[in-house]
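User: My collaborator sent over this chain with a note saying "see what the structure looks like." That's all I know about it. Can you take a look?
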Amino acid sequence: MKLGTKLGLLALGVALGCTVLWFYLARQVDIPENRTAFVVGFLGAAALGIAALVKGAGWMGRIAAVVAIFIGLLLPFTVGVSQQEVPSNAIQVGDMIPNFSAPDDHGELFDSKRLRGHPVLIKFFRAHW
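Assistant: Without extra context I'll predict from the sequence alone. Here is the result:
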């Protein structure tokens, strides 16, 4: 097996490993505030993919390298452009729930007033992409 093919497969492995870990943490609502390690991992996968193409990977290595480059550049880009800041007027633990209404999962109107007097957990989450 050519060195370029090995590098391409390694690049794809790194890219997929970082991606799986990212989405696992996103599902757990546990993406770290400092995402430098993820950015380094993704960019490292892209660099390995480029090195694989330069070294002359076989067809399997070229496909793996191109996918790794795409993943390795796309996710750091989306992380970089989706800066999330908590506004100063954000709801805090212990605050009263604001009045709002919206359709629920069954298409019926939900009104927050029905929750008065009950403890409520409201979870708004965006996975930083």
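A starting point for your reply to your collaborator: Residues 3-27 form the longest helix (25 residues).
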